[in-house]
Please model this.
Amino acid sequence: MKYPILCCISLLGSLTAFTSSATTCPEILSSKQRLLNSTENIELCEAFQGKTLLVVNTASQCGYTSQFEELEELYQTYKDKGFTVIGFPSNDFRQDRGSEEQSAKVCYLDYGVTFPMMARSSLTGSSANPVFTQIQSQAGVKPKWNFYKFLINKQGKVVATFPSSTSPVSSTLKNAIEQQL
Model:
C-alpha cells in the first residue's frame, strides 16, 4: 500500500512544480502575439521565458532599417546562449507603411532576418502592444523613434534601453547582453 501513496505524493509534487512554473511567467511575456505576415500565433511565455531578450521596435522604411543586418548578426552570435532578438514592426512614426507582406519582404528577403518578428502593432496609447505597455511601466521609457532597443533579463525585467542611434553590434550593447547571459 506504500507505493500508491508515494506515487500520489510524487504526482502531487510534480503538479505543484508545474503550477508554480506556469504562474511565474513575467508579465512582459504574458501575451499571445501573431508573427509578421502570418496567421501563426505564439505564446511569448512559452517561447521566451528564461531568456535574455532584446526587444526592438522596427520599421521597414526608416533610415535605421539597415540595422536589421546588425540585429541578425547579434542574434546569430548569442542565440545559442539563451538570447534572442524580437522585432515589433510599428507604423507609429509613419515609416512602416504598406502591407505586412511588404514589411516581411524587407525583413526576411532584403535583410535575411531569422529572429522572431511579430505582427505590426502600436507602441503607445490605448491600443499599444502589451509588451510595450510593460516596457513603459517598468522602465518609464517609450520609444522615441524606430529601432529603439530594450534589453530584458531572464526574469522579464527591463535592464537597459538603447536609442535608435546605438548600433546593435556596438560594444556597449554587446557588453550589456553578455552581463545578462
Remarks:
- The radius of gyration is 19 Å.
- Strands lie at 32-34, 41-43, 52-58, 83-89, 149-152, 158-162.
- Confidence is low (pLDDT under 50) at residues 6-21.
- Residues 25-180 form a domain with the Glutaredoxin fold (CATH 3.40.30.10).
